[in-house]
């Protein structure tokens, strides 16, 4: 099962766009371009706030969640 997570290998700032690209199986550069366009259209602040929230809320790839650790044991 695929989970949405921040990329640890293909990141420019926090790995949000690369993580979304991996999850949707789309080139991360396409996600970055869409993100920039939406940021300019919405007046910067809303998309920047969303990016920061995703940075805080999304785990990094490879970090085990508590449920995954207990399932492996």
**Strand segment count:** 0
The major sheet is characterized as: none
Strand content: under 5%
Mean pLDDT: 88
Tally of separate domains: 1
Tally of helical segments = 4
Estimated radius of gyration: 14 Å
Q: How does the overall form come out from the CA principal axes? A: globular
Taken in chain order, the helices and strands follow as: HHHH
Backbone structural class: mainly alpha
Give helix % range: 55-70%
Identify low-pLDDT runs. none
End-to-end Cα distance, whole Å, is: 19 Å
Structure in words:
The chain is built from four helices and no strands. The protein is an all-alpha fold. It has one domain. α1 packs across α2 (28-42) and α2 (28-42) packs across α3. It is globular. 15% of the residues are buried. The model has no long low-confidence stretch (mean pLDDT 88).
Element layout with pairings:
Blueprint: H1 16-24, H2 28-42, H3 45-57, H4 66-72
Helix pairs in contact: 1-2, 2-3
């Amino acid at each position: 099962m695929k989970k949405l997570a921040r990329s640890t290998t293909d990141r420019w700032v926090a790995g949000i766009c690369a993580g979304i690209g991996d999850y949707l199986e789309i080139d991360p550069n396409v996600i970055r371009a869409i993100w920039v366009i939406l940021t300019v259209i919405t007046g910067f602040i809303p998309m920047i706030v969303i990016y920061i929230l995703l940075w805080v809320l999304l785990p990094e790839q490879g970090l085990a969640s508590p449920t995954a650790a207990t399932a492996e044991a």
